[in-house]
Amino acid sequence: MIPEKIHLDIVTPERRVVARELDEVVLPGIEGSFGVLPGHAPMLTQLASGVAECRDGAKVEYLSICSGFVQVMPDRVTVLADTCERSEEIDEDRARSKVDHYEKMLRESGPETDPEIVRTRLLKHLARLDARSRAR
């Protein structure tokens, strides 16, 4: 029997961000975003930096996620993320400042700069801005 709701747990090294029943979850996978409904086939995959959508009826909550892993089961989704923030927790001015900073670092990078690390940090803050703007 297919469950009516799917339980979502999102945890980071610092805290549990989400633990509740939902109708649908959309997550940023490394090969693109994917949706999970109750009864989904089991899978394990890596997450990219991006925006997660938590849908419960007509209500949608947006969260910024920075990489990690997800385990999907027919009745449960467990996300282990490096970082995760609810849209209302995001300081938009700080995120914009960080985006500007990391874009400048990429343009002016020298031999001591690791461009992959800078890109990863840039994507994290772009996801934060995206989550904040979607929540409006």
What descriptors fit this protein?
about 140 residues; alpha+beta; ATP Synthase, domain 1; 2 domains
Explain how this protein is built:
By secondary structure, the protein is of the alpha+beta class. The protein has two helices and eight strands. It has helices spanning 92-107, 115-135, and strands spanning 6-11, 16-22, 24-29, 32-36, 43-47, 50-56, 59-73, 76-86. Helix 1 (92-107) packs antiparallel against helix 2. The relative contact order is 0.19. The mean pLDDT is 96.
- Compressed to H and E, one letter per element, the order equals EEEEEEEEHH
What is the subunit arrangement here? single chain
Total helical elements: 2
Biggest sheet details? 8 strands, mixed
Summary, kept brief:
With 136 residues, this protein is of the alpha+beta class. The protein is built from two helices and eight strands. The model has no long low-confidence stretch (mean pLDDT 96).
Give the SSE map.
Layout: E1 6-11, E2 16-22, E3 24-29, E4 32-36, E5 43-47, E6 50-56, E7 59-73, E8 76-86, H1 92-107, H2 115-135
Parallel strand pairs: 1-8
Antiparallel strand pairs: 1-2, 3-4, 3-6, 5-7, 6-7, 7-8
Helix pairs in contact: 1-2
